[in-house]
Specification:
The chain is an alpha/beta fold. It is built from five helices and nine strands, in the order H-H-H-E-E-E-H-E-E-H-E-E-E-E. The chain is globular, with a radius of gyration of 17 Å.
Length: about 170
């Protein structure tokens, strides 16, 4: 299993590589070339699962790059993706290496019905409206998956929840 130090070193090397390869680009232009999570300092949350997987999430803006590493015995998908019911049936199952899911919104039917006009007017991503009972949107059983600009929208206990993952 990867250690805290190894994960921090990996993330720091990733950020250093971006900086090295863009040294000729003025800082004011970096926001135009890179997503905000790579061009401005963020709090980075790394989760390492002892049973399966690891995740890196550029969570929120910060005054400086701030890396936080946590460990769990749960599968990584149970830690980082919202669980919406107890049926045990995911919408997608990832079983291969180097899978990318980009610009997708996973929206439950009740949330979509409530905000349909706003969602269709403002969304430039693919929207999946889920009509059936399911446990989670994605289940990672083998390989790896990269989620980029993926959003989850649902209603839980009467409360609207929108959960955006800019890069995981």
């Amino acid at each position: 299993m990867i250690s805290r130090t190894q994960m921090e070193k990996f993330v720091n090397e990733y950020l250093s590589t971006i900086d090295r390869q863009s040294t000729a680009v003025p800082r004011s232009y970096k926001i135009l070339l890179f997503p905000s999570y790579l061009s401005t300092p963020h709090k980075i949350r790394c989760t390492i699962s002892s049973s399966f997987g690891a995740a890196i999430r550029f969570d929120e803006f910060s005054a400086k790059w701030d890396i936080e590493v946590s460990f769990t015995s749960n599968k990584i998908t149970e830690e980082v993706l919202p669980r919406l019911s107890n049926t045990g049936v995911p919408l997608m199952q990832v079983q291969g290496a180097d899978t990318h899911i980009v610009n997708i919104n996973f929206i439950t039917r009740d949330f979509y019905d409530r905000y349909e006009k706003i969602i269709t007017a403002l969304s430039r991503a693919t929207n999946f409206r889920l009509d059936a009972d399911f446990s989670r949107f994605i289940d990672l059983t083998a390989g790896d998956v990269r989620l980029v600009d993926v959003s989850f929208a649902y209603i839980s206990e009467g409360k609207d929840t929108v959960y955006r993952i800019p890069c995981l």
